Every structure is written in structure tokens, then in C-alpha cells.
UniProtKB/TrEMBL annotation:
Pathway, per record: Alkaloid degradation; nicotine degradation
Annotated SUPFAM superfamilies: 2Fe-2S ferredoxin-like (SSF54292), CO dehydrogenase ISP C-domain like (SSF47741)
Signal peptide positions (record): none
Keyword set, alphabetical order: 2Fe-2S, Iron, Iron-sulfur, Metal-binding, Oxidoreductase
Name the UniProt record assigns to this protein: (2Fe-2S)-binding protein
Compositionally skewed regions (Basic and acidic residues) per UniProt: 16-26
Domain 2Fe-2S ferredoxin-type: 34-110
Cited InterPro entries: 2Fe-2S-bd, 2Fe-2S-bd_dom_sf, 2Fe-2S_ferredoxin-like_sf, 2Fe-2S_ferredoxin-type, 2Fe2S_fd_BS, Aldehyde_Oxdr_Iron-Sulfur, Beta-grasp_dom_sf
A GO term, aspect molecular function: oxidoreductase activity, acting on the aldehyde or oxo group of donors
Pfam families the record matches: Fer2 (PF00111), Fer2_2 (PF01799)
Region (Disordered) location: 1-26
């Protein structure tokens, strides 16, 4: 069998599956779109949703914000972590419709005007990434962890970052980067009398 005939057969098989799915759709299916108004990275946004679309898919497919990564798509790896009203959420498990009227921050929105957020700078300084796929989710969790005041020790950092997996095992460098930023925050707070 030639490569060409195998490819043609696979294309025909894909078309048959698509035709089968189309036949099983109920007649007169409601095509009403759900419109969601929210703020993404401090800018007003409107999403038109066909149904139960995840925040992850809406960010990537509708808004072109591809910094948020699709890893396991089951809430187990943390690669899709974003901030929803300042709290970290797994965007693969969050329906976009639930975000109506809320503020979403992605890794692209951390530093205004194309700058670098202190956590991003620390990740670079401490080489806290290998392949980089998990890095946006790691950074978003680290930002939230620091905002929550949960970086008092390496053990606490590890505990509250445990939902973010790194297949390259850059964990010691990730902890060092977060510890570094936590130290900067603490020293600036001490200097200002806070």
C-alpha cells in the first residue's frame, strides 16, 4: 500500500466521522450564542461562546493569548493557571461563562508596556525553567502565592506550588526564584515601614 492511498483513506475516515457527528445533532439545535463581558489584562473584552467553552480555550482561540498553556486539560498540571479577580484558577476547568463581569490576568498581562514582572525576572535570573512549557502557569501561581503571603519558607513555597508540575524538574530553581522575590518584597516592606 502506498503512502498516498493511506493518506487518502485516513482523510476519508475523518470525513466519515465528521458526517456521522453531523447526523447525530438534534434538528433545530439552538444556535444562540452566550455573550460574556469581562476584563482581560486590564482591558474590556467580550466573548461570544457557543456553549460550555473553557476559559483556557476562549483565551487561546478567541483572544490569541497563547501564553496560557494547555497541558493535561484535566486540572492536574497547572500549566493553564491564570488569575481570576487576583486568585489563581485552572483555566481548563473554569467555564468562560463563569467569568462574566470578572477580571482575568494572564502571563501576558503581568507587566505593563511589555516590561518584565519581578517574578518573570527572577525566573530568568535563577534559570527556573527548562523547556518552558509550564513556565507561564508556574509564574502565575508564584505571583498569587506571593500576593497571598505564602512564601515564608522553602517548605511553604513547595506546598503552595505543588499544583504546578514541571516535567523537567526545575523545582529547586523555581523555589529559589520565588524566595528571591519574597526577599525583595520583605526588604522593600521593611524599608517603607510596612
Amino acid at each position: 500500500m502506498t503512502r498516498r492511498s493511506t493518506g487518502a483513506r485516513e482523510a476519508g475516515s475523518r470525513q466519515a466521522r465528521a458526517d456521522g457527528r453531523a447526523r447525530h445533532r438534534p434538528e433545530g439545535r439552538n444556535t444562540l450564542k452566550i455573550v460574556v463581558a469581562l476584563r482581560v489584562n486590564e482591558a474590556a473584552a467580550r466573548l461570544s461562546l457557543d456553549g460550555p467553552e473553557t476559559l483556557l480555550d476562549a483565551l487561546r482561540d478567541q483572544m490569541g493569548l497563547e501564553g496560557t498553556k494547555k497541558g493535561c486539560d484535566q486540572g492536574a498540571c497547572g500549566a493553564c493557571t491564570v488569575l481570576l479577580d487576583g486568585k489563581r484558577v485552572l483555566s481548563c476547568l473554569t467555564l468562560a461563562a463563569q467569568c462574566d463581569g470578572h477580571e482575568v490576568t494572564t502571563v501576558e498581562g503581568l507587566a505593563p508596556d511589555g516590561g518584565v514582572h519581578p517574578v518573570q525576572a527572577a525566573f530568568i535570573r535563577h534559570d527556573a525553567f527548562q523547556c518552558g512549557y509550564c513556565t507561564p502557569g508556574q509564574i502565575m501561581s508564584a505571583v498569587a502565592l506571593l500576593d497571598e503571603g505564602r512564601a515564608g519558607s522553602d517548605e511553604e513555597i513547595r506546598e503552595f506550588m505543588s499544583g504546578n508540575l514541571c516535567r523537567c524538574a526545575a523545582y529547586p530553581n523555581i523555589v529559589a526564584a520565588i524566595r528571591d522575590v519574597a526577599g525583595e518584597v520583605a526588604s522593600h516592606g521593611a524599608d517603607s515601614g510596612v
